[in-house]
Amino acid sequence: MAACNPSTFARDAATLIAGGYTMSDLVAVDQFTQSAHIEMAATFRR
Length: 46
Fold this sequence. Notes:
Elements: E1 2-3, H1 6-18, E2 22-29, E3 39-45
Antiparallel strand pairs: 1-3, 2-3
């Protein structure tokens, strides 16, 4: 799963974890170095 908004990432991750998934490999990517914008990605496994 990937997201550019930490709040929605946390909400969606919580839903997946409550559904029995485990999160691993969380990565934050600063692809826009001129701004504070961060992309987030994680692997979820059941």
